[in-house]
């Protein structure tokens, strides 16, 4: 089969298309013939060596397709099932072997591209809005990169939960996308001071929670947007890693809470994964949640897909197709 392989970490050109054997599922695993593959920032961190993975490896942690082989001790899936999964490395390929506990069956109305677009960003937006800080009608939240893949889903889910949403974006086009997602106010953080704007929009009180996936460029000023006892939820680092931090700052800025969550810790067991996926697929079916697929690249162009993501170009999900 064809797969993207990384033999040494580095720039996008280390992503090479190669011929490799089709993997066989072991106990508890299924093999998925992939129809759509999600591209995520974490893939770029693996490629760069920021999150170490031993080489050579096939990147990619998200995909959707059809089960075409089932290992021993798998009871929940059969050959022919339509599935999606995430959090297992090796999806930039024609086939992937996946622990059955990470896969979910797809409802008939969800196609493979939508499914591959929904898993990581949708489940992440779900745990952020429903669990890390369970938003409610009394809350105002600030969502950075609100036109991004995760950002636009988070805006929509925050609205489903009844919160008021302020979103930051870099361009006019992204402002329109964030508004369409339901943001009550959009802040062009490349043009105006987002702290002043957040304070103004909240009558000086600040927000109950900031969802920050931008990291280095926004982290410290995000703390100044919070009301006392507010939640700083740093869930990504699209602009770079946040440097070491003195916890006393949380006291000075209002007895704040800080968390650095990760999807893996919010789908700890099968029940939790299935419950989040049920909500996600249900909202998609009801039309309360809309996915935005921005670009689809052939598998062989994985390097271009990474370049596109890293150049701050994306306005929704990026996919590869084998
Ligand atoms: P996005 O679609 O949100 O793309 C990133 C966005 O960040 C850009 O569109 C851009 O929006 C903004 N941005 C600001 N500065 C930069 C920069 N220097 N380079 C690139 N982008 C920048 O991506 P995702 O939704 O896929 O992921 C966002 C972040 O969330 C990533 O860091 C990812 O690792 C993380 N993540 C974390 C998860 C978790 O569980 N903790 C799970 C999933 C994703 P604008 O131009 O409007 O500023």
Features:
alpha/beta; 29% helix; Rossmann fold; binds NADPH dihydro-nicotinamide-adenine-dinucleotide phosphate; Quinone Oxidoreductase, Chain A, domain 1; single chain
What do these coordinates show?
The chain is α/β, with parallel strands linked by helices. The protein has two domains: 2-120 and 268-321, Quinone Oxidoreductase, Chain A, domain 1, CATH 3.90.180.10; 137-260, NAD(P)-binding Rossmann-like Domain (Rossmann fold). The protein is built from nine helices and 15 strands. The chain has helices spanning 41-48, 112-132, 149-160, 172-181, 194-201, 219-223, 248-252, 270-285, 302-310, and strands at 2-5, 16-19, 29-39, 62-70, 82-86, 95-99, 103-105, 140-143, 164-169, 185-188, 207-212, 226-234, 257-259, 293-298, 317-321. Strands 3, 4, 5, 6, 7, 14 and 15 form a seven-stranded mixed sheet that branches. Strand 9 (164-169), helix 4 (172-181) and strand 10 (185-188) form a beta-alpha-beta unit. Helix 2 (112-132) packs across helix 3 and helix 2 crosses helix 8 (270-285). The chain starts with a strand and ends with a strand. The relative contact order is 0.15. The model has no long low-confidence stretch (mean pLDDT 97). NADPH dihydro-nicotinamide-adenine-dinucleotide phosphate is lined by residues 40-42, 120-121, 124, 145, 147-151, 169-170, 174, 213-214, 217, 235-239, 261-263, 312, 314.
């Amino acid at each position: 089969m064809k797969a993207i392989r990384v033999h040494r970490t580095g720039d996008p050109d280390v992503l090479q298309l190669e011929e490799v054997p089709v993997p066989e599922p072991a106990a508890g695993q299924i093999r998925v013939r992939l129809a759509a593959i999600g591209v995520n920032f974490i893939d770029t961190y693996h490629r760069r060596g920021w999150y170490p993975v031993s080489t050579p490896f096939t990147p990619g942690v998200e995909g959707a397709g059809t089960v075409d082989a089932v290992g021993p001790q798998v009871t929940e899936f059969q050959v022919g099932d339509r599935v999606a999964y995430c959090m297992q490395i090796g999806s930039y390929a024609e086939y992937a072997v996946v622990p059955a506990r990470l896969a979910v069956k797809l409802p008939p109305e969800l196609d493979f591209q939508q499914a591959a677009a929904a898993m990581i960003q949708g489940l992440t937006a779900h745990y952020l809005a429903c669990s890390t800080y369970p938003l409610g009608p009394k809350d105002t939240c600030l969502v950075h990169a609100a036109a991004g893949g995760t950002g636009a889903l988070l805006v929509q889910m925050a609205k489903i939960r009844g919160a008021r949403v302020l979103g930051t974006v870099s361009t006019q086009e992204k402002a329109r996308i964030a508004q369409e997602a339901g943001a009550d106010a959009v802040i062009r953080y490349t043009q105006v001071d987002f702290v002043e704007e957040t304070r103004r929009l909240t009558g000086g009180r600040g927000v109950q929670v900031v969802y920050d996936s931008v990291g280095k460029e926004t982290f410290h000023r995000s703390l100044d947007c919070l009301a006392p006892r507010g939640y700083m939820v740093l869930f990504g680092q699209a602009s770079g890693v946040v440097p070491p931090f003195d916890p006393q700052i949380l006291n000075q800025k209002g007895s704040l809470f800080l968390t650095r969550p990760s999807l893996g810790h919010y789908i700890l067991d099968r029940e939790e994964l299935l419950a989040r996926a049920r909500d996600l697929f249900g909202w998609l079916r009801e039309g309360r949640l809309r996915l935005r697929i921005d670009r689809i690249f052939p598998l062989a162009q994985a390097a271009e897909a990474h370049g596109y993501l890293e150049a701050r170009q994306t306005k929704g999900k990026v996919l590869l197709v084998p």
